[in-house]
Amino acid sequence: MKIAIIGAGSMGGAIAFGLVESGFNPSDITMSNPHEEKLKSFAEKGVSVTTDNKEACQSADIVFIAVKPWILPNVVKEIKDTLHYNYQAVSVVAAGVSGTDLRDMFDYNGYCPTISLSMPNTAVKCRQSMTFIVPVTGNEKNPDIEIYRRLGEVKVIEERLLPAATSLASCGIAYALRYVRAATEGGVQLGFRASEAQEIVAQTVKGAAMLLSGGEHAEAEIDKVTTPGGLTIKGLNAMENAGFTRSVIKGLIPD
To answer: What is the pLDDT of residues 3-20, one digit of tens each?
Structure first.
């Protein structure tokens, strides 16, 4: 399969690097970006690079468009006449864009290609993303679904759930990392060097996530390490008294 990625920013770049790490042939990926400087690191990995979006699309089976939402209409207008609607699929990574918007942008005399709205997070780079996909046209067999499965977990959802998915997984990466930073600062106060504390916290968070991979409930796992009168319950109660759970929910559902 040949892949084109338009946009070499944080998300487009993470997708490209993740695919290479997954064993995808770099020469089967073409990365497009208007600024050549941003393409150098991809070329060093063996990815084909170009500053021409149309050129990137020409031989692709699927085109990923990972650009800012206000840039998207111009990109679609630019590549629209180049796309082969009968066999090329499009996966759009752009927050705040609706399926209706995409159908209108890509409409060509009443026809559209196979289009998905995709919402990965930056952990695609290390193949641990939680990615959500909304098939705008096509169905649950859209080709980007299998590609994203090489880069982590995938859920096909209804469009109405995208804002919630964004809060939990895309914004959620930042929220989880903020906990890592806070716990690292606590580790420094306890006596570890900052680099050591971050390594400890990161591995602990990774382990906690893996404990849930078998379907266990988070609270059940907490109970296993919470002894009466022990340090864990004292720490948990202190965090709750400071509004830990309330703050997390408030971050996910702000006013």
So the answer is: 999 999 999 999 999 999
Nearest partner of 117 among 80, 150, 161, 81, judged by Cα = 161
Q: Are 156 and 175 in contact (CB under 8 A)?
A: no
Kindly state the DSSP code that residue 108 receives in the 8-state scheme.
B
Tokens of residue 123, six digits: 């952990």
* Residue 92 contacts residue 115 (beta carbons within 8 Å): yes
Kindly give, in sequence order, each residue whose CB lies less than 8 Å from that of residue 120, ignoring residues fewer than 6 positions away.
11, 14, 15, 93, 129, 130, 131, 132, 148, 151, 152, 170
In residues, how long is the chain? 255
Which two tokens mark 104? 């209108």
The span from the CA of 93 to the CA of 68, in Å, is 9
Rounded mean pLDDT, 136-143: 88
Q: What confidence tens digit (pLDDT) does each residue in 193-212 have?
A: 999 999 999 999 999 999 99
Return the number of other C-beta atoms located less than 10 Å from residue 127's C-beta.
15
Q: Which residues contact 211 (CB under 8 A, 6 or more apart)?
A: 221
Q: What pTM, to 2 d.p., does this model score?
A: 0.90
List strand residue ranges (DSSP E) for 7-113, in order: 29-32, 48-50, 62-66, 89-93
